[in-house]
Every structure is written in structure tokens, then in C-alpha cells.
Design goal:
Elements (H helix, E strand, L loop, with lengths): L1 H14 L3 E5 L8 H6 L4 E3 L4 H13 L3 E7 H6 L2 H10 L5 E5 L17 H5 L6 E3 L7 H10 L4 E4 L16 E4 L7 E5 L3 H7 L6 E5 L7 H7 L3 E9 L4 H7 L6 E7 L10 H7 L4 H12 L8
Parallel strand pairs: 1-2, 1-3, 3-4, 4-6, 5-6, 8-9, 8-10, 10-11
Antiparallel strand pairs: 7-9
Length: 299
């Protein structure tokens, strides 16, 4: 996804003089050719993430469309106050593009883990959040987002589904178990393990790359009594949205995602998926326990 982002943004910088890029050293080598061609619109502020956001806010006030890029914990957590004040409070738009996701680079330690990034962005007003599930989804999402004016967060990961599934961000039914069946909503790159987890279970599976704004109309059309959220970031991030959308009808929600416990260990991204129960086996255990009588293999 990172390579797809670099290639597409390099093309956009050449095509659209409104587009700008602000870096804090991360990926500076990858964007060196673009910086050479567009020195006034590709700015590297060094290891100063808060300044990076402030510069982006200033560029946006001049009419440019800034793209701001770094690892998720540096881009969102470290610079959250500047996002809140220099972008959100000023009413200007920028496109934040992160790499690293929740636990993509665990060998670097806790400083590079950021499962709470989407939850933090969710405290702000009217941001769009895209969580692509495959590298081939990145170019179109980036291009469409840069073409707009609203604030947006594009969350890139090393995790990927087996194939791209592009759409407008509405809930896309991937597996239909019929009316009244429990609904599982998978976000971004967790579709494949979610599908594997509910194999032979009477569960409808829907997918989205856009958890914000959440497709509440689609949710209401698809949801029965049981709703299962499978998100690649902090567990429960979208629970409030689902609860509000279904407030007028009885329902139960199971929110699966990255746990709040600090594991204090390294390992690989695959290890962390397993430790947080986000691999197919872990998801199946959680889903079958939640559904109880629903969790009978279909015949």
C-alpha cells in the first residue's frame, strides 16, 4: 500500500498544482524525485511531527490541498493537538496518510504501534476515514480524496485481502445468509480472515473501506438482531455508531478489534493478529461464543 501511495501521489503532484506534500523524514527518500521537481510543494520539516501538521494547516489556508504523511503514531497520536487546532478548529482540510497501522511494525516496539488512531480522529468533526483492504484500492481512494476539500484520513497497512474490492464506501455484501441472519461488518484488510471465520455459519458478511462516515443506512437495511464488528484498530471504535443507528430496535453488538491490553512484546504482525484474536481461528471462537444458537453449521 505504501508503494502504491508513493506512486500515485507522485503523479498527482505533477498533474495538479494545488496538491502539496508535507513530510517529517518518513518516506522522504521515496519522494525525493518529486521533491526535486516540486520543491515549493514537497516539504520535509524533519522529525517535527507537530510542525508538520501546522505547516499543512498553513498550506490549506492558502488554497493548497496538503497531504501529510508519516507512521500512524507520529501522525495522529503525537500531533493530535495540532490536528485538532490547526486543521479541525481552523476549518481547513488536509489528507492525512499513515503507514504502520495498528501493529504493522511490532519489531520497532510500542512507539510504532497505534491501534487508537481512528478512535482519536473520531473525536473530531466530519472527518472521512478510509481503510483500504488491498494495495490496488489505494490509488483511486487517494485520487478521489485529494480532489476534495474535506479533512480525511487514509490508513495504509501491510495487511491485505486476496483481491481489491473498490466501491463508494457503502457496506458491500460479500456473503448473504438471508433475511434476519447475524451481520458481520469487516473493515479494510480483515475481510479475508472474517470470511474464513464464519465459513459454514449462517452469517451475512458486509465489507467497507470507509468506517467514517459509517454507512448507517446500509447497516439498518442489513442488520437483524446480532451485529459483529471486525475492525483492524481499537476494539469498539465503531460501537457507538452502530448503537445510535439501531437505537430504535433490539440488537446486540460484538466489537472485535485490537485489545486495550499493552502486550509488552514484539513478535510479528501475524503474531499480534493471533494475540488479539483477529486471525480466522480467533475470530471464529469469538463469533461462535457470541451467537450461541445461531452458530450451528449450515446444512
Amino acid at each position: 500500500m505504501r508503494a502504491a501511495f508513493v506512486a500515485e501521489l507522485t503523479a498527482l503532484l505533477a498533474e495538479d498544482p494545488r496538491t502539496a506534500l508535507v513530510l517529517a523524514d518518513i518516506s522522504a527518500d521515496s519522494f525525493a524525485p518529486a521533491a526535486h521537481r516540486h520543491p515549493d510543494r514537497v516539504l520535509n520539516v524533519g522529525i517535527r511531527e507537530q510542525l508538520m501538521i501546522g505547516v499543512a494547516g498553513g498550506l490549506a489556508l492558502t488554497g493548497l490541498r496538503p497531504v501529510v504523511h508519516s507512521y500512524a503514531p507520529f501522525l495522529v497520536e503525537r500531533a493530535y493537538e495540532q490536528i485538532k487546532l490547526d486543521l479541525d478548529h481552523q476549518g481547513v482540510g488536509a489528507v492525512l496518510v499513515s503507514i504502520g497501522a495498528s501493529y504493522d511494525r511490532p519489531e520497532a516496539g510500542r512507539t510504532h504501534l497505534s491501534p487508537a488512531d481512528v478512535a482519536l480522529i473520531d473525536t473530531l468533526g466530519d472527518w472521512t476515514v478510509h481503510v483500504p483492504g488491498h494495495p490496488d484500492e489505494v490509488p483511486a481512494l487517494l485520487r478521489a480524496t485529494v480532489a476534495g476539500d474535506a479533512p480525511a484520513y487514509l490508513r495504509l497497512s501491510i495487511l491485505t485481502n486476496d483481491r481489491p474490492r473498490g466501491n463508494d464506501g457503502s457496506l458491500q455484501v460479500v456473503r448473504d445468509a438471508g433475511p434476519g441472519a447475524p451481520l458481520l461488518v469487516a473493515v479494510g484488510p480483515l475481510l479475508d480472515p472474517a470470511l474464513a471465520a464464519v465459513e459454514q455459519l449462517p452469517v451475512t458478511v458486509a465489507w467497507t473501506h470507509r468506517p467514517r462516515p459509517f454507512d448507517t443506512a446500509g447497516l439498518r437495511a442489513l442488520a437483524g438482531t446480532e451485529v459483529i464488528l471486525v475492525e483492524p484498530y481499537l476494539a469498539g471504535t465503531s460501537s457507538r455508531v452502530v448503537a445510535a443507528a439501531l437505537a430504535d430496535r433490539p440488537h446486540r453488538v460484538l466489537a472485535l478489534g485490537v485489545g486495550r491490553e499493552d502486550l509488552r512484546r514484539y513478535g510479528t504482525a501475524g503474531d499480534h493478529s493471533r494475540w488479539h484474536g483477529l486471525d480466522a481461528a480467533g475470530l471464529r471462537r469469538s463469533v461462535t461464543a457470541f451467537l450461541a444458537p445461531w452458530a450451528t453449521p449450515s446444512r
